[in-house]
Structures are given as C-alpha cells and as structure tokens.
Design a protein that fits this description.
This protein has 111 residues and is α/β, with parallel strands linked by helices. It is built from 5 helices and 4 strands; from the N terminus they run H-E-H-E-H-E-H-E-H.
C-alpha cells in the first residue's frame, strides 16, 4: 500500500481543516486506506454491483459516519440495483450523456 491517499488527505486537512473530505476510489484495493483517513464521503467510481456490496459492508462495519456515493457507469438498470441499498448517494452522468439538446433563444422586440 503506497499510503498516497493517507498522505494526500493529511495535506488537505493540515491546510484546510474546515473542509469536508470526499475520496474517489476506483477499486476495492484502495478501500482500507480510504476508510483509515475517515473522510466524510467515499465515492465508489465504476464499481460493479458485487464490489459495491462489499464496499458498503466494509464502510458501514468501520463505524465511522462515512457517506457513500456511487458514480461512473450508472445506467437506469444499475440505478435500480443500487436503489436496493439504504442511504447511498448516486451521481449519474447518464442523464446528461444521453440527452439530445435543443438550442433555443428568446428575443424580445419592443414595437
């Protein structure tokens, strides 16, 4: 374990102790180190459902009040699966990635 997460969090906390810390991790191998820093939020990026379940259990077992958020690759189908977990935040880029935009303007002329 490189302790890079621990080092980064310490630097931020030393410089900005009033700030909340949100850590984004993209694998279970980073989870123990992330939990050890007691961040306010851990964002699980591109986790599979089985890995999400493992991460949620491990975070909740630690006893610290860490919020959990899921992000990356959240489709409507995956959102349905994630909705079975209590108190999990979700960031869903799918909403904007799949939208077709219409460019409108409104011009008002006085006569």
């Amino acid at each position: 374990m490189s302790k890079s997460i621990i080092h980064a969090v310490k630097q931020v906390r030393d410089k900005h102790p009033e700030k909340k810390i949100e850590l984004e991790i993209d694998s279970l191998s980073q989870l123990d180190e992330a939990i050890s820093t007691s961040p306010e939020i851990i964002l699980l990026d591109n986790f599979t459902i089985p890995d999400t379940i493992t991460a949620i259990e491990k975070i909740r077992e630690c006893g610290a009040p860490i919020r959990i958020e899921c992000s990356g690759g959240i489709t409507p189908q995956k959102l349905e699966e994630i909705s079975n977990f209590d108190n999990i935040g979700v960031s869903m880029g799918y909403l904007t990635h799949t939208t077709r935009f219409l460019d409108l303007s409104l011009e008002i002329q006085r006569q």
